[in-house]
Amino acid sequence: MSETGPPGDDLDRDTITGNDIANWLNANGPEWVLRFEPIGDDAEYLGFVDGRFKLAADDEVIPIALDYFSELADRTRTVEPVSVEDSPFATDDEADES
């Protein structure tokens, strides 16, 4: 479990790019993921989990391509860091440690 607060390098939804998302996830994953609220859609979580970029949405976790980051950045209403333990990427082992 992460003992520190979220990383200080905030992402601004008005200027965020796909490269910003990838760089943030590379720097802060796998302990932290990003929670996005796209305009007109349910929340989505992006993380660098098990050595791959993955998306958690609609009760499933799938690997994604970097192209998706730019598309998500264009339609994001809010973005915030979330510890992996508090995200859909949490494993049963991490939940037991809480």
Element layout with pairings:
Elements: H1 18-28, E1 32-38, E2 44-49, E3 52-57, E4 60-63, H2 67-74, E5 76-83, H3 92-97
Antiparallel strand pairs: 1-2, 1-5, 2-3, 3-4
User: How many β-strand runs?
Assistant: 5
Kindly state the percentage of residues in helix. 25-40%
The SS-based structural class is alpha+beta
Uncertain residue ranges: none
Shape: globular
Report on this structure:
The termini are close together. It is built from three helices and five strands; from the N terminus they run H-E-E-E-E-H-E-H. It is of the alpha+beta class and about 100 residues long. It is about 25% helix and about 30% strand. Helix 1 (about 20-30) crosses helix 2 (about 65-75). The protein has a five-stranded antiparallel beta sheet with strand order 4-3-2-1-5. The mean pLDDT is about 85. The radius of gyration is 13 Å and the shape is globular. It has helices at about 20-30, 65-75, 90-95; strands at about 30-40, 45-50, 50-55, 60-65, 75-85.
Brief write-up:
The protein is α+β, with helices and mostly antiparallel strands. It has helices at 18-28, 67-74, 92-97, and strands at 32-38, 44-49, 52-57, 60-63, 76-83.
For this entry, give a set of tags.
single chain; 98 residues; alpha+beta; 5 strands; 32% strand
